[in-house]
Amino acid sequence: MKNEPVPYSTVASFTPGAHVSRIRQNDEAKACRFYATEQFMSDCWQPGNTMNGDKEQVVRPTQAVLSVRTGDVVISLIHRKAAIVSPEHAGRLLSNNYVRVEVDSRKVVPAWFVWHFNESRESRRQQALATQGSTFVLRLSLTEVRQFTATLPPLNKQKAIGGLYLATIEKRHYQERLAALNEQQILSQLSDMIQ
Predict the structure, then answer these.
(1) Which of 95, 111, 158, 167 has the fewest CB atoms within 10 Å, i.e. is most exposed?
(2) pTM of the full structure
(3) What structural domains and CATH numbers belong to the chain?
C-alpha cells in the first residue's frame, strides 16, 4: 500500500530570513556576516565564487535575527535548492532569500528532505509548476514551498537515501576538483614544453 503525499508544512516548520534593510543596527553591536551564495554553494558541494571576507556584507544588529546552526536545513528560494549547514558557516545570519527548515525528526530525516527537495521527481514537478509563468527570476515563494508535498518512506529508507545522496554529491565535488587540478597540471606541463 502506497503512502499518500503529505504537505511539507505537516512535517517541518519554515522560518524565513530577515530583510537586510529592515535590520536595526548600532555601531556598538557585534558584527555579523550573512549566509550568502558562497556559503550556500559550499554547503551544496557546488563550486562557487570565493569572496574576499573584507567584501562580505556585515551588519551590527540590535535585535534578534535568525542565524544558522550546524546541521540546519536551509532552502535558497532563488537557487531552488536545499543544503545542510556545515560547521564553518554556523552563526551566519539568514537573509530573506533563505529559509531555515526544522524537520520533525519523528517523521523526516534532514538529509532525505534535502534529497527530496533537490532531486526527487515529485519536488521537481512542484517547483516547475510554482515557477511556471515567471519570466525574470525563477524564485520560489515560502508559501509555495510549505504547500509542496512529499510521499514519505519509512525512516530507515529515508536515512539510507539521504546518506547516499550526501555522500554522492560530496564524492562528485572531489572528483570535479581533482579533474580540474589534473587539467591545470597538464596545461602547465604543455606550457613548459614550449619554453
Answers:
(1) 167
(2) 0.81
(3) 6-194 (3.90.220.20)
C-alpha dist (Å) from residue 72 to 8, 12, 22, 83, 137: 16, 12, 24, 8, 26
Cell numbers that stand for 170 in this block: 560530496
Which residue from 20, 30, 150, 132 is spatially nearest to 82, judged by alpha carbons? 150
The pLDDT value recorded for residue 25 is 65
For residue 55, CA distances in Å to 51, 91, 155 come to 7, 18, 42
The torsion angles phi and psi of 32, rounded to 5 degrees, stand at: -130, 145
Contacts of 130 (CB under 8 A, 6+ apart): 140, 141, 144, 145, 148
Residue ranges in the chain whose pLDDT is less than 50: none
**80: closest CA among 117, 132, 106?**
117
